[in-house]
Structure prediction request, 433 residues.
Amino acid sequence: MKPAAFDYARPDNVDEALALLAERGAGARICAGGQSLGAMMNMRLATPDILIDIAGLRELKSIAVVDGAIEVGAAVTQDELLRWPELANRQPLLARMLPWIGHYQTRQRGTVCGSLAHADPSSELPLALALLPGEVVLRSQRGRRVLDAAVFQTGMMTTAAAADEMIIAARFPLARTGTASAFQEVAQRHGDFAIVAAAAVGDKSGVRLGVGGVADVPGVIDLSWPLSDDALNDFAWALGGVDDQHATARYRRHLVRRIGKRVIEEVGDALS
Amino acid sequence: MRYLEAGKRHSVTFSLNGRAVEGEAEPRLLLSDFLRQTLGASGTHVGCEHGSCGACTVRIDGKAVRSCLLYAVQVEGRAVTTVEGLAGADGLNPLQAAMRKHHGLQCGFCTPGILMSLSQLYDEEPEADEARIRDVLSGHICRCTGYHGIVQAALDVFGRN
Prediction:
C-alpha cells in the first residue's frame, strides 16, 4: 500500500505545469487534492512517472460566476465550493449533492475538477455536470478548449482530455428561475460509493433525470409531465447496469425506478 | 518551480504540534509514514492506507485530512497537528477526557484520527448537533464501540456551549 516512485513537481503557475505535461506526456499526472489519485497510487493502480501538484496555484483557486455559469477553478476543493456563500442560491442542486462526496475529511483536500478528471461513474460531480449540463475547460500548450460534459466523460474513469491537457476549470450553469431540483443516493454507508444516485431538474414543461452508479457514464433522460412509470422502467433497463460486488443489476434497476421516481416527484411538488 | 527527483531524499521542514521538525523524504513517502517512522510520532495510526478508514487523520493548517493521501514533501512549510498536540500541560483536553468518560474507545486504534476530526469541528462549529457530529464521524471506521460512546463524548463537549 505504498506508491511506486515518482518525481514530484510543484510548478509556480499553469504555464509551467503545461510545459511539464507536454514534455512528460502520458507518464505525467496532475495532482490537485489527490483523494482519488493518491488512493489509486497507494494500490499501484496508477504509477505515474511524475506527479504535478497544482493544489497551491492561486490562479486556479477562484469560484466565480462567468457567462451564466459557476466557474470553479481546478484547485478549488469540494469543501470550498460547499462553503461558497452563493452556492445554495445560484445552484441549489450542487449544494444538495456536495455533502454526499466522500467525507468531511476528504472534501477538504479533494477538488471539484479532480473528481471530474477521475470520472468515476458512481461519483456525484460527474452526475451533476452531465445533468445540468456543464462544461470542462481544458488547457494545453496547444491552446484552450471547452468540452460539454457528455463529450468530456467518455467512459468509466476515462475522459477526452489528451495526455498534454489539464482541466483548469469546470463550469456549472446557474439554476434558472422557475426550475426545481432534487437529489437522492443509496450507498452502503453515507460517504461510500453510490450504488445508485439520482438527480432531477425540471420546470413546468418537463423534467430531466440523471442517474449515476449504473452505467459507465452518468445516464440522462428528458421526460415530460406527467411522469410515466413505463418511461422510467425503460430508462432503468436502457442504462444496462451489471451485477458487481455491491449490488445486482436487478437491484440497481429497482433503485433507478424508486429513487428516480422520488426525485422527479420532489421536483414536481416544488413546482406546483 | 520545486522539482524533486524520484528515489532521492529531499529535506522536508514543517511545524509539528507547534515545534519545527525536519527530516528527509523521497517524494513517494506518505506523510503518515514520515510522522511515524522518520519523526517517531506514532500517535497517528495507519489503517487502510487508501483514505477510507480515517485512522491516519491529522490536521494540516487546521483542516482534518488523511495523512496517507499526502506525501511528506507536500507539507513543507505547513502547520501539522496530530493527536500528540491535543493534551495541554494540565492533562487531556476536554474531547479526550470526554472520550475516556463515555467509553468512546476500546482498542483505541481509530481514536487519534477521530479526535483530530472532532477537534476541527469543535474549533469551527462548537454548536454542532448530533447529526452533524455523526456526519463528520462517517469519515472514520471504529470496530469496537458502535460509535455510541464516541457520539456521547462529543455531545458532552459540544453541548457545554
